[in-house]
Write a structure and sequence with these properties.
Layout lengths: L1 E5 L3 H12 L3 E5 L3 H11 L2 E2 L3 H5 L4 E4 L4 H9 L11 E5 L5 H10 L4 E5 L2 E2 L2 H5 L3 E5 L6 H10 E6 L5 H29 L4 H10 L5 H5 L1 H5 L10 H18 L4 H18 L7 H6 L3
Parallel strand pairs: 1-2, 1-4, 2-3, 4-5, 5-6, 8-9
Antiparallel strand pairs: 7-8
Helix pairs in contact: 8-12, 8-13, 12-13
Length: about 290
């Protein structure tokens, strides 16, 4: 299948690589054009200069973008995806607000279908095609399954447009809450004289250990020696969008708002570009 891919960041490059490995003919675009050119040379695919050029080549475009603003520019901007007159299915797999997905659906030109299908899983999961996909559509479209099966281990079809975006915020709010609680729990153990390694051994062996704690253990114990997988700034963005959704729906999120407040503090203190595991280091400063 001929597939376009927009957004070759930490996650996107790995997902595009898996689409190529699955035998698809892939065309790529990235805001930094040289990154797309380098990727195309290394992976044996084709780089194009604009999002609208992707549409000229394919009938399916996957976008993996940082936030609503980036997605709006790629879809609605000059030479954006919506500038094409071709019929196509656009699959937004980044973490977006449900309101943004609704806007894209409403503004999509005739013949263009927009589907929200965000993913859960860090870069390790993306590299091994082990992502969970939350699709705001039904499962009748076999062509979409070809895309989803190439990048993920499981797809849950939620039926309604925008529901994938909602569930991604729900999952990420839980992940960021666990991250903050882990930072506090580890700091408490360390303050009593228990070493970080031993404290994490106990947490990992306990009923409190979520899978993300286990695979992120190296980052928690030695953040500086490992590549960034998910930044504090992105975590703050997620929690801001989640808080806005909670406000609109009238849903109380006291713990989520505390998590957001600590992420804002950490970003202001210079932690924005660091991995979200650095919240442990940030909490140590207050002990």
């Amino acid at each position: 299948m001929r597939i376009g891919f927009a957004g070759l960041g930490r996650m996107g490059a790995l997902m595009a690589r898996n689409l190529i490995a699955a035998g698809n003919e892939v065309f790529v675009w990235n805001r930094t054009e040289q990154a797309a050119i380098d990727f195309a040379v290394n992976e044996g695919c084709i780089a194009v200069p604009t999002p609208s050029d992707l549409m000229a080549q394919v009938q399916f475009v996957v976008t993996m973008l940082a936030d609503d603003r980036a997605s709006e520019a790629v879809h609605l901007g000059k030479n954006g995806l919506f500038a094409s007159a071709r019929s196509a299915t656009l699959v937004e797999m980044g973490t977006m607000s449900p309101d943004h997905i609704a806007e894209l659906v409403a503004k999509a030109p005739k013949g263009i279908r927009v589907i929200d299908a965000p993913v859960s899983g860090a870069t390790q999961a993306a590299a091994h095609a082990d992502l969970l996909i939350m699709a705001g559509c039904h499962n009748e479209d076999a062509d979409l399954a070809v895309i989803f099966d190439a990048v993920g281990r499981e797809t849950i079809y939620l039926g309604q447009s925008g529901s994938g975006a909602v569930m991604k915020l729900v999952v990420n709010s839980l992940i960021h809450g666990i991250n903050q609680t882990l930072a506090e729990a580890m700091t408490l153990a360390e303050a009593s004289g228990i070493t970080s390694e031993v404290a994490f051994d106990v947490i990992e062996a306990s009923a409190a250990c979520a899978p993300m704690l286990r695979y992120r253990r190296p980052l928690y114990l030695n953040e500086a020696d490992h590549d960034v997988t998910f930044t504090v700034a992105l975590a703050r963005k997620d929690m801001e969008v989640t808080a806005q959704l909670a406000n609109r729906l009238g849903s109380a999120m006291p713990q989520g708002r505390t998590t957001l407040a600590k992420l804002i503090e950490a970003e202001k203190a210079g932690y924005g570009a660091r991995d979200m595991a650095s919240m442990l280091s940030f909490m140590r400063k207050d002990t």
